[in-house]
Design brief:
Cyclic Phosphodiesterase, Chain: A; 3 helices; 164 residues; alpha+beta
């Protein structure tokens, strides 16, 4: 058994705005849009899916990141994220559903909640005042789907990348 903390996410290509150096910062090369969190799971179980997986998105998804999000809420935020919208969300939403279904067929438990497009840029502790009112508007593209491994210290390693 090869237990790892894993999740599926979209690779994000964006010209990141200047951000405060406040909090535990997620470096630009590690920023992603989480599709589906798997948790601490046996990596070996995923291998048959990884060997045959091909994303079913024909055009590169793009949109605009345009607002700061404080999650889970502004009263007790643990995360600073940049949220936004996709110009054509349906292909990504369909792909998330497809991957989720495949993960459930492999025996993984998944969360049953609506997907929120956001890219985490900092984690607590941080000073909310340093972030409030910051302009973050920037275009972006989702360039791939990756299986990531999460390590302590906000380190996310791409184990497998699938181009869009």
């Amino acid at each position: 058994m090869d237990k790892r903390r894993l999740f599926w996410g979209f690779e994000v290509d964006a010209k990141w705005p200047e951000l405060p150096k406040d909090g535990r910062i997620v470096e630009p090369g590690s920023r992603h849009a989480t599709m589906l969190f798997l948790g601490e799971v046996d990596y070996e179980v995923l291998k048959p899916f990884i060997d045959t997986y091909k994303p079913d998105i024909s055009a590169t998804p793009s949109g605009v990141l345009d607002k700061l999000l404080f999650l889970p809420n502004k009263k007790k935020p643990r995360v600073v994220s940049i949220g936004g919208y996709l110009n054509e969300p349906a292909p990504c939403l369909n792909e998330i559903k497809r991957v989720k279904k495949e993960m459930e067929l492999l025996g993984f438990k998944t969360e049953d909640r609506e997907w929120l497009l956001h890219i985490t840029v900092a984690r607590a502790p941080f000073d909310l005042k340093a972030w409030e009112g910051l302009s973050v508007r920037t275009p972006f593209a989702l360039t791939g789907i990756c299986l990531y491994q999460s390590f302590q210290g906000l380190i996310y390693k791409k184990l497998h990348a699938f181009s869009l």
